[in-house]
Amino acid sequence: MQLELLSPCKIRPCSSSVAQDGDVCERCRIAFGWMLQEIRILEPEAPGQDQSEPGADADLREPNGPERRASQCWICESRRTCTRVRGRWECRICARIDGSDDHDVGS
To answer: What is the pLDDT of residues 18-38, one digit of tens each?
Structure first.
């Protein structure tokens, strides 16, 4: 029985070898580096451990959450101080644009 010392590159069409199983070769890292992301495998919950942490989904339950600086607004995609609105970050400028001034058009 012969043990393999090297594993194939994680990128399927690549034929290079790497030292650790699941790793990406240097050539693929240079070519695709900006697209590669490390995947974290979460450990399974221990039996009897409370899976619901208080406040874990608080941002989704509360319609308007606290403000956070340097958040990206989902409407204008600018980084500003935003407020959590229905699970998404919204800046003050976009929050003021609600179409309430359109009722005078056409009358």
So the answer is: 888 888 899 988 888 878 777
Place of tokens 């594993």: 7
Domain boundaries, given as residue ranges, for the chain: 1-35, 60-99
Give 21's strand partners: none
Cα 91 from chain centre: 19
User: Which pTM does this prediction carry?
Assistant: 0.34
| Type of residue found at 11 | I
pLDDT at 104: 40
- Residue that has been written with the tokens 């393999």 in this structure: 4
For 55, the token pair is 């406040």
The structure tokens listed for 93 are 């400028």
CB neighbours of residue 67 within 10 Å = 14
Question: Which amino acid would we find at residue 21?
Answer: D
